[in-house]
């Protein structure tokens, strides 16, 4: 026993042999918590994706550089494109921070989509049942309702896990579908716009129920929510006692138990926060962008956010950057179509960038060492 | 005796970094015998077996199988040489049937239709029959008892043509009845000409099943003998060894007030197993109380209860005169109990976090360390730096993940954390496990310093030498309770060995 | 991760250098490098949008927003055919953005197109509010929205009286059913679908008063899996003729597997299952698009909503399937003649709804407005409109 424990502690020396091979062999070791991925990895990933897609675009008879330029200017190059990219980044960032908090303690919440919808519905409920509130009351109430509903939806995943060991992957995914069906029900049924000729959507929000926008753009106050959330997220994990407790749980739950930390209590708190942020994203989306609750309100923000969080490695700055880039990828992807390319081109581009980023990130967790 | 040995190992050394797990071992087993490899935990038995089964490769030395020198590089090589290993943890897929588990990984046939499976099932049934091993081949493994699962493992190695069968602590998971059945099977295997080598630390079993016995201690082979030429007393003595030269141990002051008083403590360990029964002990100021015993006799559970991690069913616990109502880590921490857990990286530290975070583990709630829900980062770093210096922890920086530290430095860091809180009582479980001699010595020094400062230490260890070296009083745990107690002056290694083996029930009456 | 941005910026610089020479259609991207004014937004289309190439010809630049891809062989396919027709007539090249969801994303895409086009055509009902919102901000751009009911000074809507063809389809269905159970897969419970179902029912009634129409909602315009499920549930009810107001041929294929007859929507869908094909209404947008562009060029365009019909060719009826007997074909043909002559109104009283209430009195003909807001089912239709 002693020998085995020591072997594990000695970090792989157990594989050394009596005779050394003439040529040093390379061995790949998977180390998911390794932090120091080479700085050029994402760069190389983007280059690789662009290069691969360039081949296909050129084969289709279009100049790939013109396409990339269009994509870039479409997403970042004009004030319109930039604000639209930010509009897209807001829900991605909020949901991304939400899932990151859960992932920090190894709680695999993939229910941000459902929590987003719960928040969007709760915010809309305020507009339906209290239609005449002034902005100073309506907006804070909608915000609170969105956060609360998202948090409670998250709790629906955390409670069964804490007390009955129900796998959160399955329960959070299932709750996404439940939220989606609930959304269908309210937009086709009770909350349907009476003047909308049966089109599945709530009545348009009034100006009092809409988050203020910046100038004449669609960029709305949700940006402040998102950046504040990122700041709070960074600060909590770095400097607060709660953040320390969460870091400890994430690193080693056994050790956290040894420090007298209640895992279940924190699980519930974390999912309240995680779901709450996704719910806030839902509120911001209906109140800031769509100005109504409607069928298909989320084009999968909750799922994209998982990728955003993953690529950012849960790091607050990384989250801001990756949410922004994903927003740009979506916005720029549509712009490319105006060059006469089919929509599949932008999907290919998005897919390839994602593929290489993930491949690069995964590769970053592999350390290459020489076998002695 | 012209017949070559079934297996012979010559001058085998195995090193893991600085730790020597096997030191110049000579070992041989004859064909058609049951050979027991006896020793305490950590004596190096499993390492030796692992080199035969191809899991590890020796640092130096030679292995001969049936008189021929071989190079075993992998479990596959071992199997080709007719060596099959039954591990302590079974390697079975629970949803598959026994037969499917046995043919799993077989590469001889690409097409696996129903008739192929039927033929294989028959073959397996025949192999099992031949050796008198009854297994339900068509039932999924999860429906089988532990004893039946073990039989599946044995049939698996037999089916793959093993002549030399290694079993690592085969009875550790079995009930006594199942163990008796296992021994019956092993005898049948021996009678069928197979060679069986098993590792164990249980003397009773050795005397019951083995034809020959090899005893290991601290990585060395201390003797091989025939069963009929020895007795349990001799084996116990060989196993625990002679007392080494005493280390520097200053005479302590007479012990003071009781710090920990446990009376009639009974602890359940899940699945209705009683891990600790009716246990009473006292630890006073300025004394080290050592608990010796073979692993699995309730020491871990006792330590967990005292650290607040596990509830108890019966009895009372008083710390510094105050009775505990229920178990909570917070209560334990606030009562001034320090805990060095038995597996530091599993439960004592967070490997991916840095030194500061790991030092904060027990004290982060203290106003010195955090205020208004905020960590006092600058102050904490300075404090961590001073601890690192004071306890001579060698690390690249304060943010280095502690996983990257050596075992000794990890343990020093853990002690730094537990000692800095100025605990009244420290519970140290296997505190030197896996450490090299130098690191072990500094741990011992720290424990003695605590004692000198008037603190109490409850030292739980499987290393009898360690317990004897450090303790003012020694208790021996067996079957969940204290079976022997003796003062330092009256400590008798041989008697302790017998207590540990559960052979002497009456508690020693020496007053301390 | 931050270096991705500089990288992309560098790349963009290279890109502008590289594509500068090749020119071409890339010209109307209003990037800062080429035009110098990052947001050509406010005043919108007209002047700034008329990129060099088009300015010379004096032709307007046109953009289309599609809900799907032309490859769907249905709704978007027909709009794409219309675009090609329009391009041919005027000798211009339109911009197309496809696969645009009916969500907040649509508003961004419409606005982006409005920044540098003179006419933006949004081809799905769900784009209505987004189109209106952008139209209010870009008064110089003309917006044509398909299928809706909201307009602005610079935005109109256009659609066709496809219920006329639905009526004719109903005649064929009523003659062909043996079980007297006819199934209808509806996309959304909106007036456009509802009045087509009612017209279909009227057509059936004219030849087979006993037949009942069962309606199932799919809540999607295009999702072959869901449509197929809906179709199978109707076949399980005993339906032997199906019609689907959907963009995929899934219903026709499901019917073919069970030996039932079926029709789809938008296009002639014979090729998907010739033996099982009934018929269905079809679209022909080309002439309207060509005309609308002409009107904008001439300055005669107004925001008066456009409602095409079988008479003007915007709405058509696909040829009846090969397994439909000649007498049925003749019956449908003669009814079609009456509609083309203007001698027949589909929605003419008395019309009784599901609850038995008389909705339209004897002899009264529904106005187009009343039809476009229809929110009730005729008696003899089994199915619910969520209220």
Q: Look at the helices and sheets of chain B and give the structural class.
A: alpha/beta
State the oligomer. Answer: heterotrimer
Strand-and-helix sequence of chain C, N→C?
HHHHEHEHEHEEHEHEHEHEEHEEHEEHE
How many β-strand runs of chain C? 15
Write out the CATH superfamily name of the largest domain in chain C: Response regulator
CATH level 1 name of the largest domain in chain C: Alpha Beta
Q: How would you describe what is shown here?
A:
The complex is a heterotrimer of chains A (372), B (512) and C (387). Chain A is globular, with a radius of gyration of 23 Å. The longest helix of chain A has 30 residues, at 135-164. With 372 residues, chain A is mainly alpha-helical. Chain A contains 14 helices and two strands. Chain A is 69% helix and 3% strand. Chain A has a domain at 97-303. In chain A, strands 1-2 form a two-stranded antiparallel ribbon. Chain B has 17 helices and 22 strands. With 512 residues, chain B is α/β, with parallel strands linked by helices. Chain B folds into three domains: 7-240, Rossmann fold (3-Layer(aba) Sandwich); 258-336 and 454-512, Rossmann fold (3-Layer(aba) Sandwich); 339-422, no CATH class. The N and C termini of chain B lie far apart (54 Å). Chain B has helices at 45-52, 75-80, 98-103, 114-130, 146-159, 176-191, 203-209, 232-240, 299-306, 329-334, 344-348, 355-360, 377-390, 407-420, 437-452, 464-470, 493-500, and strands at residues 7-16, 19-29, 34-38, 60-65, 68-70, 83-86, 164-168, 195-200, 212-217, 220-226, 258-268, 274-284, 288-292, 314-319, 322-323, 337-340, 370-371, 374-375, 425-429, 456-460, 473-478, 481-487. The longest helix of chain B has 17 residues, at 114-130. With 387 residues, chain C is α/β, with parallel strands linked by helices. Chain C folds into two domains: 57-160 and 283-315, 3-Layer(aba) Sandwich (Rossmann fold); 163-280 and 318-382, Response regulator (Rossmann fold), CATH 3.40.50. Helix content of chain C is 40%, strand content 15%. Chain C is globular and about 60 Å long. The model of chain C is unreliable at 1-56 (pLDDT under 50). The chains are: A mainly alpha (372), B alpha/beta (512), C alpha/beta (387). At the A-C interface, helix 2, helix 3, helix 4, helix 11 and helix 13 of A face helix 1, strand 2 and helix 6 of C.
